[in-house]
Amino acid sequence: MPFEVQMVAHSFLFPSNFGGQEGMIAVHLVSCYGHAIYKECVYKHEWFCEPVAELLESWAGYREWRMEEFPESPVDLTFVSYPVVYEDIIMGIEWGMALSTVATILAFIVLAIMLRNIRQLGLVACNILTGIGTTLLIMYPVSYYVMDVNVCAPAMLVAVALAMSIDYSLFLLTRFNEERLDGRSITQSLEIALATQGHTIVVSGATLALCFTSMLVLPTSTITSMAAGAATAVLQSVLVSLSLTPALLLTMPRFFTADRMLGLTLDGTPFGTYRRASSGTVAQFGATIDRPTIIENPQPKKESIWAHLGRCSQRGAPVMFLFLALVMVPFAMALTRFSYVEDLTPLMQTTHPATKAFISISNIYGQDLTTPVQLLIMAPSQKAMASREWSLATCHMLQDLATKVTDRMHEEGHDYTMTTADFNGLMIFRGGCLADGLKFGVIDVMPAVHMYGMYDMVADLLSNRNQTATQVYVHCQVDLFSEVGEAWMRAVRASLPRPEVIRQPLGGHQDADSANYVPYGRWDDVEIGALHLYGMPLEQMDGAQYTLRRMPYVGLAIAAIVCIILGGSFGTALIPVRAVICIAWMLVVTFGASVMVYQLGYLEGLGVHAPSPLAYRLRAETQTPTPPLCVRHV
Do residues 376 and 532 lie in contact, with contact meaning Cβ atoms separated by under 8 Å? Predict the structure, then answer.
């Protein structure tokens, strides 16, 4: 291979950002049967993904062997690909679900203290397992036939089911135990608990489920799938709490009401001590269903700490209102500095090797490799795309596009200049048209590129199998997820040449030889084809913008739901208004605290870092000569 061609390849694979000491060897993997190996090898684990998994394991084993055999070697190999990155994200979600399980243990300890009966924790556990199980049974066909469910939805579903099942069980069992202490029978206590707390549970569950349902209007599958799962979890928690808990209490009344020594005895079991109740009394250990308990020398109830705090806050209501308003001020000020983070990085585990490798690749090559913006050009036909005229016309169109984007950015007040070198594809490289040759200095290396098959290899990567469409990588000189980066994406999209005739053929793209073919557009009197700008940054920008536009409507819908349900349930307008004010206060504090911690980095001194600066924190760690090997699945 000529030296000039080697220098071009080396400058791309080992850029000068880090002194040419870090770089990438891109491995292009294609299934032997022509199957895609992107998401199918992460989520569905199709049979044709097994060789890919074995290859990744072999490379990982080679890396471990090299580190052991050559510990002083300055070369460190790191393997990263999008399937590995998505596996990293899924592992993080599973870790979050494991943390939810740990939190459940702590919640059970608190429940045992409040209920003073460890046996009743079995009722709560049955509610949780049944609620989660039935919700998953409902969501499985929904995910299969109705909508795509995001990988974060199961974690949200489990968290909501845990919280609601514990809350509703606490409401019901606390009131049930209070009525039992007043001497009422199990059926009487259960009837009162269902009539009072059951009403609260139904109103609370209906309000929360409808609020989650209102989020289905948002145009983001991530939010809609999580909202559908959460609404289903809430409804199932309500149904299970109001049906399974009473059924179990009436089935084994003595067992669940025997609370001597917090229930850590054999009372109410076949092995426990049981004395038959005389007329007008109940059994000594564990209650009967219908007979009330006669309490000798009843003691007056002690006021709980929550009731005491509530009465104190009511006495100083103006002072408390002013205090809460002042508390909300710093969170509201932080909320004004809110800006969303668009990237895979916040979803990834900070300590996972794939995260560090992904960020290292981003630092070396920029976002063009990890989150690229691409221009899809669908040529009129395979013959047109292979012609020199089409290549030149497309190249000239891209060169003119750079000028238009620069003018538009300047009009919007951004000091940004887009150059022709920001386009790289089959027809353009480093700003020059490949149909006119590839100059390295004064030497044209294009014949050597064709001779050694490098052009054909790139063409296979950038074109479809029928050679009727190709991709052009569009480089952005700033962070794509910054304000200027978003303005740049909007400018590129708005500056694309408008077609002479909008082509909307039935059945998708049609060949120029088809009788129903309609021309899309021309440049230099040459028909180019359809142009589509796409990429993950564009998708996230559009989704975030559409979501933020509709959020006010979601807020109004939630306020209306709260007012209608609470107003209809309690027959007054004061309670819903108070509820809306409390919800608004909690949302401002919650989101403001999230902005403080995860965007402004107020807790970085405690080791809690914001997701957005993660790449910059790791940039200093990647200054050593550690060229990573990027395994790119196409």
Answer: yes
- Nearest of 506, 492, 501 to residue 521 by alpha carbon: 501
Residues in contact with 631: Cβ distance below 8 Å, sequence separation at least 6, in sequence order: 27, 29, 56, 59, 79, 80, 81, 84
**Which positions ≥6 away from 79 have C-beta within 8 Å?**
56, 59, 60, 63, 357, 628, 629, 630, 631
Nearest to 282 by CA among 180, 166, 168: 180
DSSP state of 463: B
By DSSP bridging, strand 432-433 and strand 428-429 are antiparallel
3-state secondary structure at position 474: strand
Q: Among 181-190, 348-357, 616-625, which is the least confidently predicted range? A: 616-625
Query: For residues 82 and 27, is the Cβ–Cβ distance under 8 A?
Result: no
Structure tokens belonging to residue 397: 């169109």
Cα–Cα distance measured from residue 256 to residue 186, given in angstroms and rounded to the nearest whole number: 10
| Cα–Cα distance, 67 to 626 (Å, whole number) | 12
Task: Report long-range pairs for 464-469 (Cβ below 8 Å, ≥24 apart).
Answer: 466/382, 467/382, 467/385, 467/386, 468/378, 468/379, 468/381, 468/382, 468/385, 468/509, 468/511, 469/376, 469/377, 469/378, 469/379, 469/385, 469/509, 469/529
Which residues on neighbouring strands pair with residue 526, listed in sequence order? 523
Strand-pair partners of 145: none
pLDDT above 60 (res 450): yes
Residue in 561, 41, 86, 43 with CA at minimum distance from that of residue 355:
86
Confidence at 599, pLDDT banded by 50, 70, 90: confident
Characterize 192-205 residue by residue with b for buried, 16 or more Cβ atoms within 10 angstroms of its Cβ, and e for exposed: bbbeebbeebbbbb
Q: What does 113-161 look like in DSSP terms, one character per residue? A: HHHS-GGGHHHHHHHHHHHHHHHHHHHHHIIIII----TTHHHHHHHHH
What Cα–Cα distance (Å) separates residue 362 from each residue in 108, 349, 355, 421?
A: 44, 16, 11, 19
Rg, C-alpha atoms of the chain: 32
Question: What's the rounded Cα separation, in Å, for the pair 140 and 157?
Answer: 12
Contacts of 267 (CB under 8 A, 6+ apart): 254, 258, 260, 273, 274, 285, 286
HSE (CB half, 13 Å, CA atoms) of 383?
3
By the 10 Å C-beta count (0-12 exposed, 13-18 middle, 19+ buried), 45 is classed as: exposed
Per residue in 365-396, pLDDT tens?
667 667 788 999 988 888 888 898 999 999 99
Q: Which residues contact 325 (CB under 8 A, 6 or more apart)?
A: none
Query: Which residue in 339, 320, 356, 385 sits closest to 527, CA to CA?
Result: 385
In the numeric block, which tokens belong to residue 464? 């479809």
Q: Return d(Cα 431, Cα 16) in angstroms, integer.
A: 19
Burial pattern 399-432, b for ≥16 Cβ within 10 A else e, equals: bebbebbbebbeeeebebebebebbbbbbbbbee
Q: Using CA atoms, how far apart are residues 549 and 547, in angstroms rounded to an integer?
A: 5
- What's the pTM? 0.71
Record the tokens describing residue 428, joined without a space.
């353009």
Rounded Cα gap, residues 353 and 357, in angstroms? 6
Give dist(CA 258, CA 119) in Å, integer.
8
Report yes or no: 37 and 486 within 8 Å, Cβ to Cβ: no
Cα→Cα distances 176→168, 296, 510, Å: 12, 20, 70
* DSSP, res 303: P
**3-class secondary-structure state, position 437:** coil
Q: How far is it, in rounded angstroms, from Cα 537 to Cα 345? A: 13
Counting Cβ atoms within 10 Å, is residue 102 exposed (0-12), middle (13-18) or buried (19+)? exposed
